[in-house]
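Here is one chain, start to finish.
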Amino acid sequence: MSEIKVAITDDDSLVVSLLEDYLQLQENINIIFTAQSGEELLVKIEEGLMPEILLLDLKMEGMDGLEVIEHLKAANTNIKIIVVSSHYQNVFMGFMLKAGVAAFLPKGVSPKTLVEIIHAVKRQGFYFLDDQLSIIRTQISGKSPKPELEENILSEREVDVLRLICQQKTAKEIGEKLFITQRTAEGHKNNLFAKTGAKNIAGLVIYALQHQIISIDELPII
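Its structure:
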């Protein structure tokens, strides 16, 4: 696996220091910078330091985590955000998913588990804790619109690809499963982004849930 570029933003300097020291020792993880405020984070990104994954606290002095998420979303970055917060509540999961957050975790998560989640987010674009699935069921799928059968914007093959994406399959695995080339699988994936308006893999999962292409129970749990 290639090296994962990670940034940490939290206004608790002790948390940042301990987390940086631990993660820097892990295989294939490189902490490219830390920041103690949303403003400092954005300055570093503007200077060209672009992480693949951002570990972000919610409550910070000045620009809080929610404002950071909105800013990064508006800037259309490809940064995958893992929110790690002492203000964690399961009921916030639907909001976080809709905001494009790749994972939402309590601050008490073990460092070992956090490493596993970082790799999962790098690999598949999102991560759900076991108990979050039932919350997503009530917050998202319960409000799902009725499918408009007369206006099926996705082709049958695109639906097949979308279902496999939701099952954590890579483009290579999708190609092997559907007997198409990896390049063709990537093309279908790009079409899905264009047709659904999703900005990331989490957005495709939301679309699939809302349009009943998959059910909550079909989403894999690591």
